[in-house]
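With this grant's support, we have settled on a layout for protein records. One resulting record is reproduced below.
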Amino acid sequence: MRKITIYIIITLLIGACSLNDEKPKVKNDAKTGVIHATDLFSPSIDDDDHFDLACQYALAVNNSIELKGLLLDRSNNRDPDVQAVAQLNYLTGLTIPFSVGIPERLKNSNNFEQFHQDQSVKMILDILESSSEPVVIHITGTCRDVTVAG
């Protein structure tokens, strides 16, 4: 029941943001590129992660940002909520790429090299390299992938 309520609220939030017919006033019509990194798990640990994600989609639907990618944390005892991403892609008509992150804790900078081929690190680097403008990386979960990419 709690999860259904969350999805109803998320749907209403996205719908309300998409009702505005006015284009947002952004400098030079350039939208800010955003990568959203989150510890969105199923079952949920804290429900604010779903709202954070819904807000990112609402901003993207409203053309306020260009949501370039999502990083979902991985944990040994929790599954990333890939279904929530798929549902928001479906509800909004957007196709936001995502990657599931590095599962292990980073012990020190000497073991970063082993993660350079990880899909999440590759996604960050690909987005940054292909963007002509700076990209905001919004981190609400761990920063393992961003740390290794940096």
Remarks:
- DSSP finds five helices and six strands in the chain.
- Residues 2-19+33-149 form one domain.
